[in-house]
Amino acid sequence: MKGDSVSTKLRVVFDGTCKPSNGNSLNSILGIGKMLQPDLFTILVKFRLNEIAFSADIQQMYRQILIDQEDQKFQRIVWRESKDSPIREYKLCTVTYGTASAPYLATRCLFQTGLDLERDDSAVSSLIKESFYIDDLMAGAPSSEEAISLIKTLSNILEARGFHLRKWRSNSSEVLSRISSNWVGDSSNLEIHPDECSKALGLTWNSMKDIFIFNLKVNFPDNITKRSFLSQSARLFDPLGFLTPCTVSIKIFYQQLWLLKLDWDSPLPEALATKWKTFQKEFEQVCSIHIPRWIHTTSKQITLHGFCDASELAYASVIYAVQPQADGNTKVTLLVAKSRVAPLKSVSIQDWSSTVHCYLHAFMQPARTS
C-alpha cells in the first residue's frame, strides 16, 4: 500500500526471491543486466546546468513492455477472486515488478528508443539516453521555447512506443501552460530517491521556487540503539553532498559506534547518546537550507575548482563552478561535495595526502563529464 501516492495507491509486487522446493528462486537464475543509464549523480549535475528545468515520469513503465512469448510461462501465478472462487492459473505477459531482470529490461527498451533516434533527432535521442533515471526524467533547456519543443517531440515519440509521460513539473509557467493539466504533477515538489522503491529522506526539488530543499524528519526513540540509529540514519539521502558538513558527523559517529561492538538492541552509552542528541538538534536546522537548482550558466567559460582536506577523523572534497560574468565579476557556485571517514589503520602523512588528492581526482571526473 502506498498511501502517499497520488496515482498508484496499491502496487502489486511479485516476490521473485521466493524459493520453491528445489531451492532455486526465479531471481537466482535471472540475469540482472548492466546499468545503461547514467547514475543519479551525473543526471542531477546536468539538471543544474539549464535555466529551464522540467521533470516527468513514465506511467506504469514495466507494464508497457511485453515479455517474449516463450518466456511468459516462467511468470505464471495462481489467483482467485474470492475464497469461494476456483483457483485459476495465469501468466504475466509483461515485465514484472519484483523480478531481478525487470529494471534492465525496462531501461533497455527505453534506451533502444534513444538509439533509434540518433540520426533523426539527436537532441531527443540524447535526452532519452542521458536524462532518465529508471522511469524518471530530469532535464532542461536554455529557454522555455526550446523546452516546449523538446517536451512535445519527446512526448509524441515515447507515446508512440507505449511510454506515456505524466506528472510534469517545471520552473517555467510558460512550459506548464503548454501541457495538459491532466498530466501536470499535483505537487510542485519532486522527491529524489536512490531507487524505485526507496523511502529515503533528503533531496527534493521545489519546481515553483526552483530550489533544492531537504526533508529530514527522522524520528528516533528515546532509548537509541545501534539498530534504530542505523535504520534511521541510513535513510538520509544527499547525492550531491550539500549536507556534507552534517552527514560526515553521522559517518564518524557510525564508525565510533561500530568500534564499541554493541549488540544491535543495546542502548547507546550515555556519552554517545548525548552526542547524538546534539547532532539531532543541528539537523533540525537543515530543513531551512535552500540550494538554487540552476547554477546560472550564462557563460560558456565554466571552470571547476576542486578542494580537498583531511583530519584524523575524516576527509572531504568539494567542487565549485566558477564563471566570468558580463559585468566583470566572477560567479562562484557550490556544485557538489563528498566525504569519507578516515581509515582505522594508521597511515603516514605522505600516504594520507596522496589518498586525499586521489579522492578529489576521482570525484572530479564525473563532475567534468556531466
From TrEMBL:
What InterPro entries does its record include?
Answer: DNA/RNA_pol_sf (IPR043502), Retrotrans_Pao (IPR008042), Rev_trsase/Diguanyl_cyclase (IPR043128)
Q: GO biological process annotations for this chain's record?
A: DNA biosynthetic process
The domain of life for this entry's organism is: Eukaryota
Q: Which Pfam families match?
A: Peptidase_A17
Q: What is this protein called?
A: DUF1758 domain-containing protein
Organism encoding this protein: Trichonephila clavipes (Golden silk orbweaver)
